[in-house]
Structures are given as structure tokens and as C-alpha cells.
Amino acid sequence: MKQKSPIAQIWEWGESGHKQLILSIILALLGVLAGIVPFICASKIVVMLIGGEKDFQSYLVYIFAGAVAYLLNTLLYTGALGISHKATFKILKEIREKALAKLPKLPIGTIMEMKSGRLKQIIIDQVESMETTLAHVFPEMTSNIGGFLVVWIYMFVVDWRTALLAILPFPVGMCLMITVFIGYSKNYARSVEITSAMNDSLIEYTGGIEVIKAYNQGGESYATLKERCIANATFFYNWMKECKCNIYAMIIAPTTLLSILPFGWLFYNNGSLSFKEFVTTIILSLCLMGPVLAVMDFVDTLAKVGTVVENVNSVLSAKEQDHSGNESFTGKDEDIEFKDVGFAYT
Questions:
Q1: Residue 264 pLDDT more than 90?
Q2: Interacting residues of 27 by C-beta distance below 8 A, sequence separation 6+
Q3: CA torsion 144→148→151→152, rounded to 10°?
């Protein structure tokens, strides 16, 4: 059986909120498209200003259109996030309820193997981390990708050369971003493991503090907790130091003007690009990378989704104890004897 992707698995868990999530995606896409209109209006106004247009009514039309579009963008974006968050909290509640309903059905040995700190981290913390995927990634990421494509296609209509030049810095930034995610899954899985160990020690220490003090074992028990806390902090500090290329990627990727201005000016000078087209491509290039940067903000979320889904699924899909072979014995004269009966957990 083909294994589902993490995103497909989360989408399946969120079945009860599909209609609301789809509606939020549509509203978010309309909001992104509305957010592009002020940039187009600004390009028209700049062209008229430089061209010496003195009729205020001509400017007023574009000012009004840009203001209405900006207001519409705010309302649609807010509405989309409101709907997606309501659906998300409902879905997360259902996932937690399923996990809690699953625990009594599992063999006692399976429960004992899952330390309390790990169960808390999965059912509380990791389920909570799916909020970003459901409430933000689905509506925002999809709508911003759609917005980027619409702007880029419009730039192709204006001038295909500047449209290609506008995205030139983006692959450079992505190359730097890729270096950050080499081994990301491994590091994130390790972060979950080391955080779980720290949570286990913390819960065990606080839960047994009376016994620890009674037997004068405070120093030894606290030393273990301290060691794991320091190990957790050290791991994350070293991991973040390795991610410094992400800063350069976020700086380089949106610098569309570095390629648009020199080459656009060259095309304008040789007459192959009109002044109106040159100004339009400059302003649209500023609008082009906004959606892309919004998408890049979710790269980290998508990179860790696999580990989160795997851990949550380890609880939801765990093998339940089989009670189908139970026998019911009745009668006063029956002698029941257990001989060579045993059980064990690996």
C-alpha cells in the first residue's frame, strides 16, 4: 500500500473542515489578487506624473481603485484566516479526542513504552504544531502561489524579457535555502527526540519530588534533568548556527530590481521597451516577490511536517489489543487452571 504524503495525511485528518478550508483558500486567493491592483494603479499614476498629466480626475480614478482594492485585500485576508482558524481548532480537537480514545484500547505494554513526556509532546505540542499547516499553509501558501503566477503572467504580457529577469535572483536565493534543508528532517527528528527526553525528565522529577527528597536523591535526579536541559539548549543553538544561509536567501531572493533596473534601462535606451512598460515592470517586480516571500516563510513548516505526522500517526494507527478470543466461564463446579501461561513485551 502506497504511503500517504504528510500533507495528504493532514488533509485527511481535517476532513470535517474541508469545506471551510476550501472557502478560506478561495477568499485568500481573491485577497492576494486584490492586493495586486494597488501596484498596477501606482504604475499608472507614476507614468502619468512623469508624462506631465495635470488632470486631477485622471489620478483620482486610480487612487480610488487602489484604495478600494487595498481595503478589499484586508477584508478578504482577515475573513480567510478567521474561517481557516475556526476549522483548524475544530480539527485539532477531533485529532486529540481520537488520540485519547485510542489510548485505552492499546496494550498496557505499549502505553508503558510511551513515556508520559512523549505522549504529552505528541498529543499536546505536536498536534498544536499542525495549526500552522491547516490554518496558514493551506489558504496562504496556495493563494500566494496563485498571486505570484498571476503577476508573472501579467509581466509576460507587458514584456517577456523583464518577466524572466524579475525572477533571476530567486533561484540564487533558493540555492542558499536548499543548503539549510540538507539534513533538516534528520535534525528535526533529533530535536523531537531530545525535547521528549527533557520533558520525560521534567515530568518524572516533578512527579516524584517527594520521594526524591525523602530518600535524599535530589542531587542525582536534578543532575539528570539539568544535563538534558543543557543538551536540549546546546542542540538548538548549534542547529540555528548552521541555518545562517537562510538569512542570505531571504535577502537575495526579493532583490528583483538588481536585474530589472540595469537591463530594463538598456532595453529602454535601445527602443525595444517603452517608458510606460519600463515603469510598469519595475513596480510589478516589487509586487512579484511579496507572495514568494510569504511562501518561503512556510518552508520550515513543511520541512518538519513529516516528522510531526509520523509521530501523531504512531498513536492514531497503533495496533489495538485484540479481545476477540476472550472466553466467559460460568458455573460453580468448573475448575479453571492456568498452566505455563505468560506474556511479554519487547
A1: no
A2: 76, 77, 79, 80, 83, 139
A3: -170
Q: Which of 143, 128, 134, 131 has the alpha carbon at shortest distance from 21?
A: 134
Report which of 64, 194, 186, 49 is spatially closest to residue 117, judged by C-alpha positions: 194
CA-based nearest residue to 286, from 43, 22, 122: 43
- The model's pTM: 0.67
Q: Which grid coordinates belong to 197?
A: 527526553
Cα–Cα distance for residue pair 260/289, rounded to 1 Å: 13
Residues 6+ apart with CB under 8 A from 96: 123, 124, 127
Distance CA(344)–CA(135), nearest Å, equals 43
Is the predicted pLDDT of residue 324 greater than 70, yes or no? Answer: no
Side-chain-side CA neighbours of residue 98 (13 Å):
17
Of 334 and 112, the structure prediction assigns the larger pLDDT to 112
Residue 308 — very low, low, confident or very high, per pLDDT cuts 50/70/90? confident
Candidates 13, 25, 55; CA nearest to 305 is 13
Number of residues that this document lists for the chain: 346
Query: Left (φ > 0), alpha (ψ -120 to 50) or beta: where does 183 sit?
Result: left
